[in-house]
Amino acid sequence: MAESPAKVQKAGGGRSCCVCNERRAALKRPKTLEQICRECFFAVFEEEIHQVIMQNQLFKPGERIAIGASGGKDSTVLACVLSELNRRHNYGLDLFLLSVDEGITGYRDDSLETVKRNEVQYGLPLKIVSYKDLYGWTMDEIVKIIGLKNNCTFCGVFRRQALDRGAALLKVDKLATGHNADDIAETVLLNILRGDIARLSRCTAITTGEDGPIPRCKPFKYTYEKEIVIYPDNFAELVC
Predict the structure, then answer these.
(1) Where does the signal peptide begin and end (predicted)?
(2) pLDDT at residue 233, rounded to an integer
(3) Euclidean distance between the first and the last CA atom of the chain, given in angstroms as a whole number
């Protein structure tokens, strides 16, 4: 019996893509272990996120959605994918980038520049809220008072509230964050170790805060971090 096209060795070495059976496979998907070409990975990655959005009814036409933009890989890819899917599938969403400047010298400067580039690249309005404007203190000034111990706890609480306040200023209906499957798995393990049963029961929800003024959703709930890292590399090569 002849081998299936997906297993046929291409001239010059390497297997053919298991999706299109035409191009040479360029990578193995961390999520499924499939041998796949760059073009098909790009398409499959976006389609899976589209299906998550549709199956979980994350958005409704006409909604204003803020994307929590830190300038890191997760939020940058989220901005790119949501912008593309909104255009391709006509979600009818008004998308905004929302970033927080904690006032930590040498920490947030570069990432804020990345967010500003995203604003231009994806054509999404950007709102930056700062600890200084919201609380009258930068994080550097807070650390001078409280010291280095437990400063991350303070910053985490302030950052969450800053995102809520920024979302309120933008008058959005939801806040989308770049939390991925790895983040959620880590949170589950931490809550198990802490014995925090109440938080354990809600930490895997794809949408939280529905009883509050601005719900938060995680379009990347089922997306592996390794694939989020691979995606922008493929994007750069495909558009060149």
Answers:
(1) none
(2) 65
(3) 41
Q: What CA–CA distance (Å, rounded) separates 240 from 3?
A: 34
Rounded Cα distance, 141 and 13, in Å: 58
Q: Is the per-residue pLDDT at 21 higher than 60?
A: yes
Specify the pLDDT at position 220.
Answer: 97
CA distances for 128 relative to 110, 151, 170, angstroms: 14, 22, 11
Does the global pTM surpass 0.90?
Answer: no
- 35 bridge partner residues: 28
Tokens of 97: 């980038």
Q: Which two tokens stand for residue 23?
A: 């191009």
| Structural domains in the chain, sorted by start | 1-58+226-240 (no CATH), 61-218 (3.40.50.620)
Which residues does the annotation place in the binding site? 68-70, 74, 100, 178, 183
Q: Is the dihedral of CA 15, 233, 188, 83 positive or negative?
A: negative
- H runs (alpha helix) in 56-196: 73-88, 109-122, 131-135, 139-146, 151-170, 181-194
Taking the C-alpha atoms of residue 159 and residue 180, their distance in angstroms, rounded to an integer, is 19
Which amino acid would we find at residue 87?
R
Binding residue positions for ATP:
68-70, 74, 100, 178, 183
Give the per-residue pLDDT at 216: 95
Q: What is the pLDDT of residues 164-187, one digit of tens each?
A: 999 999 999 999 999 999 999 999
3-state DSSP call for residue 64?
strand
For residue 8, pLDDT over 50 is answered with: no
Helix (H), strand (E) at residue 232? helix 225-239
